[in-house]
Amino acid sequence: MTFKALIVDKDEDGKTHASVQEIEETRLPDGNVTVAVEYSTLNYKDGLCIGPGGGLVKTYPHVPGIDFAGTVEESSDDWYKPGDKVVLTGWRVGEVWWGGYAQKACVKGEWLVPLPDGLTTRNAMAIGTAGFTAMLAVMALEEHGLTPENGPVLVTGAAGGVGSVATAILSNLDYEVAAVTGRESTWEYLKSLGASRIVPRDDVAETVKRPLEAETWAGCVDAVGGAMLARVLGQMKYGASVAAVGLAGGAALPATVIPFLLRGVNLLGIDSVMKPYDARLRAWERLARDLPMEKLEKIIQPATLEDLPKLGADILKGQVKGRVVVDVNA
């Protein structure tokens, strides 16, 4: 039996190249659940794995795709049986383990979660790791006291995958959302997701000499890091929290400890890759309930396996808006 997959290989000069190929099912990794993949999606990590690797891919040839949703075909795991609808995000699948850019995937059952009631496999991949991470960030902010009454919530990198879903979730929960973007072309898009105001990226892109500025934000979902995160920390209200989910602006943090000491600001690290099973279930249940599907539809860009090499390069350049949903069978 053969199936279609996006195969990334590396030549003798160390350059990677990706192409869609028909491969034998016997080449699948040795997991205990085989899934007929229906949809996958595109994240920044996927762009790295399709292209230069970013140190994430250890062995070639490789099948990227850190997310997928589909139907169980075979299982020796007691939790799953043929016909079950399942979702996978994280666990370094698509990095060190063959992932979802294929019509079949074979993984460990402990990495899967059941598809929540009310979601289709297409919905689940419109959400994907980006949306799952956004929900974890919102939950962490709530656990540290954030409510709509506290004031506006800032979302940096708002037009990206995490930012788009975070904006839609927060707006649906009656928060006032301030969306940071460097692209004027995304303003109407972000307003359609529920952003109450747009903050031009240049307004918060650089650090300032003052360690504290006016108390402005009751919470923040930050996908940028770097100088922007340092600047935002000095603008948080007393006791407010920032959920850090990404580093598109750099991994360094040129900040002082003053916001933490004088305003009690919290910096919350959000990891979605190794998140335990029970926490995953809670997040997916919240997504099914708190993310309006009509807004989710607005941010979907459909794609096929053949489209991924170009889209992978585009996402590394910051040129992908919203969520790419990959129909692996198209």
TrEMBL record:
**MF (Gene Ontology):** acryloyl-CoA reductase (NADPH) activity
Under InterPro entries, the record lists: Acrylyl-CoA_reductase_AcuI (IPR014188), ADH-like_C (IPR013149), ADH-like_N (IPR013154), ER (IPR020843), GroES-like_sf (IPR011032), NAD(P)-bd_dom_sf (IPR036291), Zn-ADH-like_protein (IPR051397)
- Enoyl reductase (ER) domain location is 14-326
Concerning SUPFAM superfamilies, the annotation shows: GroES-like, NAD(P)-binding Rossmann-fold domains
Q: A Pfam family for this UniProt protein?
A: ADH_zinc_N
Name this protein carries in UniProt: Oxidoreductase
